[in-house]
Amino acid sequence: MLLSDLLCLLSSSILALVLWYQVRTDFQFERYMLILVPVAMCFIVVFFSIGLYPGLGIGPVEELRRLTIGSFFVVIGLAALSFYLGSAGTWSRAILGLSWFFITLSVPISRKIFRRLAVRSNAWGMPVVVIGEATNAGAVYRKLRRRPLAGFWPVLCLTADSIDHAAPFFKGKDTNKSLFKGIHIAIITLGQASLADAKNILLSKAHEFQRIIVMVDEQLIGPLWVTPLHLVEYLGLEVTHNLLNPLQKAVKRLFDLVLILLSVPFWIPFLVIVAVLIKLDSPGPVFYSQKRLGYDGKEIKIWKFRSMSLNADKDLERLLNQHPPSKLEWEQNFKLKRDPRVTRFGNFLRRTSLDEFPQIWNILWGEMSIIGPRPIVREEIPLYGKEFEIYKQVLPGLTGMWQISGRNDLPYRERVNLDVYYVQNWSIWLDIHILIHSVLTVLEGRGAY
């Protein structure tokens, strides 16, 4: 991570210098080059102080938040220092601003690339032991093994019928030394165990590990808005629901409008080009509307580019009646992987998710948001079960959590879990994270049909 950040910091600063040199050739290019390394080290020191090395367990959204805020304050600090030293006139604010812009964009992406390369070369992650009840500990063990980018690599899993029955594992110092050799992190999953049982293990093992991570349960509570509180001599965990805060909702709405207005020069010509190509490909209207569920479960009419042939609804009914496997697939996912109704150009639109683009009008009218759970049809409510009450607390989105986590290849239950996670853990940083990954997912073209 240190190497990744250093390369990005230097290359971003050089790029800013080169670009500004095209505009102003009268500034001292060599003078700026001499201070690049000391300035980059200022960023490194701040990143180190906010826990970004190695940054295990903080998650991609929290990492994005820390990187953005940390780099911003470094730039502000450098500007303030130049004023204090009386050298403000010799510094270019444009270069500082450009450098910060490129750093903010490149550092998170570079970290993701470096992590993937490190995982492939077995150079990323720290060994951990997972301890707890068989069901919970086994599930955590398997999930961590499937997601090596998280940085916690389980090499040992100690399970028992109940966490207090795991006590025999901790008897005998000689056994412990060989069992936990080279492992400095323990993950304890409580499941249905009492806190008293967990406390006994924590007290008995506190001297064995440098870090002990306690997982209270399997609920999808995110790390960003859970704050530990000191309540007299007790520990309290405060969970903040941002989307119930009117100010935060206003910030999300402003975020939508600013992005749309800034992209006007792009999306208006794009709408015209796609409309012409649809007309050339197949007869019928350019747009297609469908009733979906919006905020508070109320019906809204969403718009799409038409990607199917005319009379597609009747063709679907006939197909499901004549082909039982397709009917089963439709009942499970409300989508068909090989849908014969899709046109040639419509196939491209669906693979790139560009057929959803006209929903920008729904966003402008306040019926949808850029980021959020995808709008569902009424028939899908039973698949959400009791989680539907959580789902309908927010505006549906153009893209969301499950679009960047596998798209249509995900089981429906997993899609529901991701929607619930988004609602309960929303932040502007989560929206930015989803937006960046949505672009990358569309470019990969996986899981779309």
> What's the Cα radius of gyration?
26 Å
Helix content: 40-55%
The main sheet comes to: 4 strands, parallel
- Structural class given helices, strands, pairing? alpha/beta
Q: Distance between the terminal alpha carbons, to the nearest Å? A: 36 Å
**Major sheet: order of its strands?**
2-1-3-4
Low-confidence stretches: 170-174
Number of helices: 18
Strand content: 5-15%
**Order of SSEs:** HHHHHEHEHEHEEEHHEEHHHHEHHEHH
User: Taking all residues together, what is the mean pLDDT?
Assistant: 80
Strand segment count: 10
- Overall tally of domains: 3
Q: Identify the quaternary structure here.
A: single chain
Describe this structure in words.
The strands form four sheets. Strands 2-1-3-4 form a four-stranded parallel beta sheet, with helices on one face. Strands 5-6 form a two-stranded antiparallel ribbon. The chain has a two-stranded antiparallel sheet with strand order 7-8. It has 18 helices and ten strands. The protein is globular and about 70 Å long. The longest helix has 28 residues, at 93-120. Helix 1 packs antiparallel against helix 5 (93-120) and helix 4 crosses helix 18 (428-444). The protein has helices at 2-23, 29-34, 36-49, 60-84, 93-120, 134-146, 173-179, 195-205, 246-262, 264-281, 312-322, 324-333, 344-351, 360-364, 381-384, 388-391, 412-424, 428-444, and strands at 126-133, 152-160, 185-189, 211-215, 226-231, 234-239, 287-293, 299-305, 369-371, 397-399. Residues 170-174 have low confidence and may be disordered. With 449 residues, it is α/β, with parallel strands linked by helices. The two termini are 36 Å apart. The protein has three domains: 2-120, no CATH class; 126-218, Rossmann fold (3-Layer(aba) Sandwich); 246-307 and 342-444, no CATH class.
